[in-house]
Amino acid sequence: MHKKPEPLFSHVPRAVCPVCGITSYSASGVHPQCAMAAADQVLTRRIKDRNNLGPKPAVAELRQYEKRCPRCRAILHVRKRVCDCGHTWSVTNSQ
Asked: What is the count of structural domains for the chain?
């Protein structure tokens, strides 16, 4: 019976890319495109966190006879000149 010959050089296992899980061909152990994708995920997450500072308040549509107080954001009738928070509208400033 013939036996397989021993390899001349020892085989060093290649590193597995931590991003995609496939054997990496680069010296650092991470594919260049996977490294860019990982960096983009960090940047994208940072941008989303910056933009999503909290839940956005629901904006109700105003009817034609309503106005919004600039101080407390309450919805009032257009003829009302003084809000409950104390804000007053002048005759020239009414909407």
From this structure: 2
pLDDT, tens digit, for every residue of 26-79?
888 888 898 888 888 888 888 888 877 666 666 678 889 999 999 998 999 999
Which residue type sits at 91? Answer: V
Whose structure tokens read 């152990």?
Answer: 29
Ramachandran assignment for 86, one of left (phi > 0), alpha (psi -120 to 50 degrees), beta (any other):
left
Q: Do 70 and 47 fall within a single domain?
A: no
Going by pLDDT thresholds of 50, 70 and 90, the confidence category of residue 94 is very low
Is residue 81 situated within a structural domain? yes
Do 39 and 67 belong to one domain?
A: no
Domain of residue 36, residue span: 15-52
| Amino acid at site 3 | K
Beta bridge mates, 77: 66
**C-beta separation of 12 from 24 below 8 A:** no
pTM score, two decimals? 0.38
